[in-house]
Write a structure and sequence with these properties.
The complex is a heterodimer. Chain A is mainly β. Helices cover 0% and strands 52% of the residues of chain A. In chain A, strands 2, 4, 5, 6, 9, 10 and 11 form a seven-stranded mixed β-sheet that branches. Chain A has a four-stranded antiparallel β-sheet with strand order 1-3-8-7, with no helix packed on it. In chain A, β5 (42-49) and β6 (56-57) form a beta hairpin. By secondary structure, chain B is mainly β. Helices cover 0% and strands 54% of the residues of chain B. In chain B, strands 2, 4, 5, 9, 10 and 11 form a six-stranded mixed β-sheet that branches. Classes of the chains: A mainly beta, B mainly beta. The interface between A and B is medium-sized, with 29 and 24 residues.
Chain lengths: 114, 115
């Protein structure tokens, strides 16, 4: 089975702290994604990557950065956390190519910024 | 830009009753369409997907959806609800002009099942 693992299920951070959210997939997928999920807003794309060291901005990249040094790992970085970044963060991966395939999701990382 | 509308943020049904969750999309080209389910404190998992083959798509756990191009709809149904179906359901559509492989998600419909 495809497995997408997010390193932290729950995090509590203070305003201004640097936050790292890690995501690892074990199916050799080319594409990896970070979404933010908020009640009533659905899922919004923050960043995605279709290859190692490649990244593209999604719909809401402000305040976030990403890193993909290895194919299986995609990290989301909050350089200086703010309270409005309190949210559920979901990592996903999929096979490459233009035709959209199934996204496989991790269990999510719930971040609270105080 | 591609968009997805899910009618009703909350739907409540009795156990054994029909489940109908509505999804409409905006697209000038035939899209790929997906339904995902999210159980509490978990990530999303795929229920079913439409990729321009049969218009009636069968998924896991007894769910199915019908692609209707004339109505730009992809509603999700299940003949008889079970308590274990209580979850949040997301409709998603491919993003042909946007990020490679990305999906555009609706805002979700939370399904409650009453005993």
């Amino acid at each position: 089975d495809v497995k997408v693992t997010q390193s932290s299920r729950y995090l509590v951070k203070r305003t201004g702290e640097k936050v790292f959210l890690e995501c690892v997939q074990d199916m050799d997928h080319e594409n990896m994604f970070w979404y933010r999920q908020d009640p009533g807003l659905g899922l919004r794309l923050i960043y995605f990557s279709y290859d190692v060291k490649m990244k593209e901005k999604g719909d809401i990249p402000e305040g976030y950065s990403v890193s993909r040094e290895k194919k299986e790992r995609f990290s989301l970085i909050l350089e200086s956390a703010s309270t409005n970044q309190t949210s559920m963060y979901l990592c996903a991966s999929s096979f490459g190519g233009r035709a959209p395939g199934e996204l496989f999701f991790g269990e999510g990382s719930r971040l609270t910024v105080l | 830009a591609q968009s997805v509308t899910q009618l009703g943020s909350h739907v409540s049904v009795s156990e054994g009753a029909l489940v109908l969750l509505r999804c409409n999309y905006s697209s000038s080209v035939p899209p790929y369409l997906f339904w995902y389910v999210q159980y509490p404190n978990q990530g999303l998992q795929l229920l079913l997907k439409y990729t321009s083959a049969a218009t009636l798509v069968k998924g896991i756990n007894g769910f199915e959806a019908e692609f209707k191009k004339s109505e730009t709809s992809f509603h999700l149904t299940k003949p008889s609800a079970h308590m274990s179906d209580a979850a949040e359901y997301f409709c998603a559509v491919s993003d042909p002009g946007g990020s490679q492989g990305n999906l555009i998600f609706g805002k979700g419909t939370k399904l409650s099942v009453k005993p």
